[in-house]
Each structure stands twice: as structure tokens, then as C-alpha cells.
What does this fold into?
Amino acid sequence: TWFYASAKADSGGLIHGDLILYGRGAPDLVANSSDSGQGSLAGLADQLYQKGIRRVDGNIIGDESYFRGDPLGDGWQWTDLQWYFAAEASALSINGNEVDVNILPPEKGTGRPIVKVSDAQANVVVQNRMGLTDKEGRPTVGLHRGLSDNNLEVWGEFTPASKGFGARLAVHNPALWAARLFSDALKARGIAVGGEAQFRNSRAPQNTRFDPTKANELAFVTSQPLSEIAKKTNKESINLNAELILRTLGRERGEMTASPEPAGRERGDDETGLAVVRVWLSRAAVPSSHIALHDGSGLSRLDLVTPESSARLLIAMSRTGTAGVFKDSLPIAGRDGTLAGRLENLSERVWAKTGSLTYDNSLSGYLTTAKGEQLAFSIMCNDQTGRGASTRLIDQILRLIADPSSSSAEKPSKP
It folds into this structure.
């Protein structure tokens, strides 16, 4: 993430112009961090202060124009868009592009339940319609964030026994949120800001888009190595990271494809990234005739893959120079990530990525059998109304493959 100024600072540390916070797709930028290895807006503000900057007369602009195309995936369901797992893939992403929403009982036992949002900038505007009821039972809570704004409506009823409710919501227009957060970080560091927080994206006319080569670079922070980003992405199943990696692939490696620009429109970097993936699959001899790819995370209902194609992909990855890095990025059964509470008896023997949508559940990865054989596997359960049952079935199948003679390998039953 880079920081530019439209004009140079004078001898008194005053910038007569705008400051541009220019994102290049880093998935791990945060507002504040105690980790010296993680980029933060507070760290950028420190760099500017150390360079003698004391005041900015212009605006703070969050620029996400590095990526072309829509920040949402093709085929994403509109009912998913307010939740953290469908966060917008902005080139200038901040704090995972999500906020925590917590609903608490009223402090004195009467009045309206309290809604708290982890957003000190009031980027999310809350309309609290929660109430109290004397009835026993479970609380009812409804949340709705606008599709093109950050107006959050909260409704429902807390019972006398209600202790609280929490949810994670996606933030619309994360570039503007980043600009507001950075403006606050500058002021907290002792740098005055005369203008306001604004944002800019790739939908601006070509002749008005920001050109970093013609601006004054002041500071920057780097993201963690891709190996660490991949590990966090796969182990914690972070959709946003996968979408940002896909768009970065399209932006940085788009020349690998021979696909022309679509007639009448500018091709998005997500589309270009998918074209690059198809080139790689072809070179790795992974059949793709039965594959339909529409996003980077798998959240789209338009995505179509088969267990065979997934297993062949795993085999192809095992033959690359980064096989160890890729395997290390996968959750380990019974130990970490999304497999921390599953297959404990196969710990250190199963490295695999989980996948789930409503009614669909899958697990794909590597398995070491009792005889020491190394296997690639992919198990997919579609159209299952009971997620727990399909998860148990997948685990039973893996135990049977891992050690057919073991008494712990139950015979799989229908979910």
C-alpha cells in the first residue's frame, strides 16, 4: 500500500494538495497493529510524521483504481452481500473490510438493547429498533445492511435471559472507510488535515485516473509474503483474500492470456485472473472441460468443479516447486483452521481445504494412509439439507481410506 501527495511538502511540513492512499490489493492492511511485520495505517502516519509532514491542506483520498472490474463476484447471491464472507474485493482493503456488530442487554435492565459496532468513524450508521419482551425463550434478532450503503437496520426482541448477540458484517466502499481511518490516524499522530476523506475507483474516465508515476511518493507498507497470506487464506477460509489474490493475478500476470478485451467494456481483473488460472490448468494437464470458474473464493453458485478435477489439481500442485508451501497452507486435521475440531485421530495425516455452501459440503487435500501411502482426495456432497450429516459422512470415508482395518473406521451411512 503506497502513499502519494499531489504536491511536495514545503519547508514547514505543509502539503498544499491532496494525499492519496493507493491500494495494490494487500489483504492484510489494518488500521492499527502491534505486529511490526503487518502493514498498518498508523505505521504510515508515523512515516509521514518522521518525514516532517505536519499539515495537509487537501483531501485524503482512498484510491482503489488499481483493480478494474466489479468488487463483487459473478453470481454471488444478494442475500450474502451484507455478511463478512462476501466482503467487497477492493484494491484498498482495510481490516478485512468487515466490522463486528454486538447487541447487548440494556445496562439497567430496562429500555432498548444496545447495538455496538467496531467502527469508531461511524462509517456504519445504525438504526436500532430492538426491544424487550417478558416472554421466555430465545431472543429474535434481524440485521439488514443496504446493498449500496452502510446503513444498518437492527430489529427484534431480547428476553430477560438474553446475554447478547454478535455478527460480522461486510463494509460497503472499503476505500472510503480506509480514507477516513487514515485521516484519523494522521490527526492522532499530530498531522492536521484540512480537507475531507474521499475515494476513487477505476470507473473514473481514463484521463482522470490516478497515475502513481506522476505523483510524489511519500511512504509505503508491504504485505506479508504470499506464503503467509495463502496459509491464512486456506486455514481460515477467508473469501476476501482469495478474491484479492485472483484480481492481483489478473493485474500482474494478465499478459499470459491471449483473450482480447470484451467489445464495448473494460475487462475486470477477476476475469483476467480466471483466464490466467485456465492457462495454468492447461499447462499442468488438469482437465478443465467440466469446470466453470466465476470467482476466486467459490462463493458463486455459477462455479462448477468435480472431485476428479480437484484431485488432479492437488496432484499437479504436489509436483511443483512450491508443493511444500501449498501443503503447509492447508488446515491440519484435529489441529488448526477449519479442521481443528475434526478427524482428531488423523492428525498429522490429513491436510485439506474445507468448502461449504448452503446444502453443499466438501473436503479436498492430502491423506497419509496407515501404510504410509500419500494420496490426494476430493469428496463433495451436494444437495444435502443436513450439513452435520454430510460432514460426518466425509470424515467416515476418510477414516476408512486411511486405515480400512481399524475399528475406528465406521461404515459410512447415508446422510
The chain has a mean pLDDT of 92. The radius of gyration is 24 Å. The CA atoms of residues 260 and 267 lie 9 Å apart.
